[in-house]
Design goal:
Elements (H helix, E strand, L loop, with lengths): L1 E7 L5 E10 L2 E11 L2 H10 L6 H25 L9 E18 L2 E9 L2 H8 L2 E4 L2 H6 L9 H8 L5 E7 L2 E7 L9 E7 L2 H11 L10 H5 L4 H8 L2 H4 L8 H4 L1 H14 L3 H23 L5 E6 L6 H10 L3 E5 L10 H14 L7 H4 L9 E3 L2
Parallel strand pairs: 1-4, 4-6, 7-10, 10-11
Antiparallel strand pairs: 1-2, 2-3, 4-5, 6-12, 7-8, 8-9
Helix pairs in contact: 2-3, 6-12, 8-12, 12-13
């Protein structure tokens, strides 16, 4: 079956579209295309993410994103000369504007919640293709954190009968999936380790007056110096001390976290390149810290995907921390590093259609496996 996955992550940088062939549990990537959000759209999304926002703005963005997602899929088909009607199913993640998997006390109850926007009905109307969307809610309803949801796909793509592997995604938030040798699905451990590119990108935008969106090849970080005092302060963040299952987002490492980091600069005489180098080091350290905590004494392969794979300084620091692990790009396994999460939601949509569970309770904390996603049909 030909299945498309449409993903827009916590970095809010744009829309990723992956088109795959899926049969008998085998995932064959066919095409991938990434399209940046128009600057005004990104600014509006930032304005409603993890903050007080007007319902009018959220409702309009919800339908606008539906249009943009449909256009992105159509553009991808045209780019790779694939017929739109050859696609049987779409897995649509949507854009997360709030996620609190751990939950909070609210009106006399403890409520965990999440919200992804991007109206599936619009995508169905524009493409004529069935859409599976809203993947996280069911896991939360089953007692889970609603994330991470990629582990079942990491298991299908990367497990090895004799070698330990860990799949690392360096998106806005970094997450890991630990795959022991010959592991069964229920033995997989996965969680968000902390910031991926989110804090680094925000610092670069601040430094450049929004003329740059990210640290290309880690050049700015390489020109700076890691400030050990600031790093130790950041390492004391309560999130790193929590045990899994756990999830992170802008709520932990978004605007407030970055503002605190920026405020340290003048007070301690630290320039922006040094802060960017220190934030990059924090990402590398927290990924390694998570891996060593989840798999003490293990050695094997760390398979990296996500936008952070293009940051050479970050990859170098990750290799320095992950002694005993061979650091490899997912591209070496036939999976475009930028496409993996979109591929994952194509796979999760396929599992929904086959009524197969898409969550891994050992990763999300759910009480039991559940089928993920809601269906909208033409």
């Amino acid at each position: 079956m030909r299945v498309a996955g449409i993903m827009s992550g916590t970095s809010l940088d744009g829309i990723d579209v992956a088109i795959t062939e899926i049969a008998r549990g085998k995932i064959d990537p066919l095409a991938f295309h990434g399209l940046p959000y128009p600057k005004p759209v990104r600014e509006r999304l930032l304005a409603v993410s993890n903050t007080t926002a007007h319902t009018t703005e959220i409702a309009r963005l919800n339908f606008l994103l539906g249009e943009l997602y449909a256009e992105a899929l159509i553009a991808t088909c045209r780019r790779f000369r694939l017929r739109l009607d050859s696609i049987a199913l779409i897995g649509l993640h949507g854009q997360t504007i709030f996620h609190d998997g751990a939950g909070a006390d609210y009106l006399g109850r403890h409520i965990a919640s999440t919200m992804q926007i991007g109206e599936a009905a619009v995508v169905v109307e524009r493409t004529g293709i069935q859409v599976i969307s809203n993947f996280r809610e069911r896991d939360i309803a089953a007692g889970g954190h609603g994330a991470p949801l990629v582990p079942v796909v990491d298991y299908l793509l990367f497990r090895h009968p004799r070698m330990a592997r860990v799949a690392v995604n360096l998106g806005g938030i970094a997450n890991i999936t630990v795959l022991p040798p010959g592991a069964k699905l229920e033995e997989v451990v996965a969680f968000d380790t902390g910031p991926g590119n989110m804090a680094i990108d925000a610092l670069v935008r601040h430094m450049s007056g929004s003329r740059q969106a990210y640290d290309r090849n880690g050049r700015i970080a390489r020109s700076g110096k890691i400030h050990e005092g600031v790093l130790r302060s950041l390492q004391r963040h309560a999130y790193f001390q929590r045990k899994s299952p756990k999830t992170a987002g802008r709520e932990q490492f978004g605007g407030e976290f970055v503002d605190r980091l920026i405020g340290m600069g003048p007070n301690m005489g630290i320039g922006m390149p040094d802060l960017i180098a220190t934030a990059t080091e924090l990402t590398a350290w927290s990924v390694a810290y998570g891996i060593f905590a989840a798999a003490p004494g293990a050695k094997g392969e760390a398979i990296i995907s996500g936008g952070g794979v293009h940051n050479r300084f970050l990859m170098g620091r990750l290799e320095a921390h992950l002694r005993g692990w061979k650091v490899r790009s997912s591209a070496e396994f036939g999976i475009d590093p930028d496409a993996k999460e979109a591929i994952a939601f194509a796979s999760l949509a396929y599992r929904n259609l086959r009524r197969r569970p898409g969550n891994v309770p050992s990763a999300t904390g759910a009480h039991h496996p559940v089928v993920l996603g809601k269906s909208t049909v033409p």
